[in-house]
Amino acid sequence: MVRVRMSDVAARAGVSTATVSMVLNGVNSTRISPQTQQRVREAAEAVGYKPNSVARSLRTQQTRMVGLISDTIASTPFAGRMLAGANDVAREQGHLVVLVDTERDVEAERQALQALSGQQVDAIIYACMWHRVVEVPEGLPGDAVLLDCAPASGGRAAVVPDERAGGMAAVRELLAAGHRRIAFLDAEKRFDLVASRLRYEGYLEVLADAGIEPDPALHVRAEPVAGGGREAALRLLELPEQRRPTAMFCFNDRMAMGAYAAAHHCGLSIPGDLSVVGYDDQQLIAADLDPPLTTVALPHYEMGRWAMEVALGLLKGDPAVPHLMPCPIIRRASVGPPPAQFGD
Amino acid sequence: MVRVRMSDVAARAGVSTATVSMVLNGVNSTRISPQTQQRVREAAEAVGYKPNSVARSLRTQQTRMVGLISDTIASTPFAGRMLAGANDVAREQGHLVVLVDTERDVEAERQALQALSGQQVDAIIYACMWHRVVEVPEGLPGDAVLLDCAPASGGRAAVVPDERAGGMAAVRELLAAGHRRIAFLDAEKRFDLVASRLRYEGYLEVLADAGIEPDPALHVRAEPVAGGGREAALRLLELPEQRRPTAMFCFNDRMAMGAYAAAHHCGLSIPGDLSVVGYDDQQLIAADLDPPLTTVALPHYEMGRWAMEVALGLLKGDPAVPHLMPCPIIRRASVGPPPAQFGD
DNA sequence: AACCTCAAGTTAATCGATTAAACACATCGG
DNA sequence: CCGATGTGTTTAATCGATTAACTTGAGGTT
Questions:
Q1: Distance separating alpha carbons of residues B175 and B164, to the nearest angstrom
Q2: Which residues on B lie below 8 Å from A59 (Cβ)?
Q3: B258–A118 C-beta distance less than 8 A
């Protein structure tokens, strides 16, 4: 497959490459006669001309490529949704995404930045695969956009989920169903998760608004996986009946999965005897549990879009404070009214 | 941030750009005196020179970028692992991955190919997010590598999981535990899944080898999600005792999840009363079930690596027949001996 | 002295576009 | 008839590297 150059088109149309360039890019096209334009377009079509973007980039100093650096592509199933959001916007704008996975290795990050800046990408997005506060790598350009993480030292455009509001929505959902004794199955402190703190704040605030005194016994922590959720739920279900929760808000869907297991183990049915709300709306889990899990969705796709929109200058990000993306509640079938003896 | 060019380095070192280029790339470097080399390197360091890969690419006709076209980034959690494999190899080789998601839209595929060829990528990988036979898009270069799909019309390097061997491994695992009545919870025919046919073939072959007459009643089909698995398992568990299976091989982990639910519902314990084997080794599901699921892993990471290795010419792919990547069995806790009354 | 070889560079063409500036030609007013 | 104005197109510089071909001077041979 021989590449056809602009000069081939020019030769065939009997004009100079300058003319071809102007016609095909629609620049200064008023200054070129319609007949010539027509000839050029036909010639381009006839020889199958495809512009060489490398050459164009060299000249224009724009590559129409955006670098996306992420700490780990593989480790979470969320990656795809964020990539998809970013990718969709890029495509709409005629840009391509160059992906670099640094696996959280500082040296790899340095190399990646170097490669991307050598590659002259038009913008850079720095993405984390779960919500954290990060020390941005040295050499990250000031206009890079942070995705699913907040900069430790501020001053950069960033987008993160509104975990606090998400926590509030979850608890409100349970409150609305009539629950008063609502547990929070939290992640252990040692994981130091931003999300954990914020969701808990949301939990407390809604209880306070409802005039409910939070019971410290109902705030339990475990490893944020199914096993941890099971164990934490079991601890709660062993409480004396009047102190036992009628609903559980779980830090994530995996813990909710464990809570389901615990409920089965104790012969309790969901939502008849126990209501459960998760967080993450994890693909292939939340909707597949039995009964399907009511949960709070992490807006990965939307955050990916936002980051790309800001990176491409379509939207202005506020460097002072991270943009909070709402976490919608997804209603399925794991929430019901509390068992009769607890009703009002 | 002003970009520093090679001529800046040359000026500072008091040599020509040709010399700088040779020194920094180690080409013809025997022809340049050590003192000069030293001077050049120091100058480059001093001014913070970073090569401009766009210019280099234009000259060398190599971009050190590989295009990865995929039908859907977002829809499966497998994407990440394949991307990670491809990405790791690319990085090892000093290449970057340019990602394009076409969402299975023919027009988008055409555009993507055009963009990538305009971008002069050195190689192209066409990836599917689940094992299929595809009509490759017109214009896909002959040396593009197919990942997790086989070309309808052959003649291209491709890699797919060895589903047949995977199915065999799963059934052998159950056989080895002493089971004789092994069901296959298959996907419905209308989904027309390559994997379904091959796994079933593997199932039949192992039974034949073991001298077991396959019971058609034990081959049931349903939608390959949790709900379908539950329903299919329930149908099997309603069989009269002597015809009931003691083990279930499920088309995927989601169906296995449903089989768990069915077992719970019938008051059966896993693996005490029923053994279950899944397929996919789906993150956040298989290991998180209670008990953890024994399953067959889809080698996404390895396939991603293989595809990139072939694409970069590190490995030679056989265009005649797709490369089969082994699917290792992952032993966890859902397989045990059959209940006593069925023992031998 | 004439010629050759080798070492250590340099010169200049090239990759394929974009674009400011120049050019050729026509038209028109005075 | 001159200059101004306008129109349509070309010329040539440029982006920043790579690299084949050439230069220059020193040293060696006969």
A1: 16
A2: none
A3: no
The answer to the question of residue A60 being in a domain is no
DSSP per-residue codes, A86-138 = HHHHHHHTT-EEEEEE-TT-HHHHHHHHHHHHHTT-SEEEEEEEEEEEE-PPT
Q: What distance in Å separates the CA atoms of residue B4 and residue B49, rounded to the nearest whole number?
A: 6
User: Sign of torsion, CA A71 A73 A74 A80?
Assistant: positive
State the best of B64, B71, B101 to mutate against chain A, taking most chain A CBs within 10 Å: B101
> A44 lies in which domain range?
6-51
Low-confidence ranges of chain B (pLDDT < 70): 1, 74, 342-344
Q: Which two tokens stand for residue A5?
A: 């150059």
Q: Is residue B135 part of a domain?
A: yes
Task: Please check whether residues B336 and B214 belong to one and the same domain.
Answer: yes
**pLDDT above 70: residue A344:** no
Read off the DSSP letter of residue B284.
T
pTM for this entry:
0.92
Let me know if residue A213 belongs to a domain.
yes
What pLDDT is stored for residue B342 in this prediction? 53
- Strand C, nucleotides < 7 Å from a protein CB: these are 7-12, 14-21
pLDDT in tens, B37-85: 999 999 999 999 999 999 999 999 999 999 999 988 767 778 788 999 9
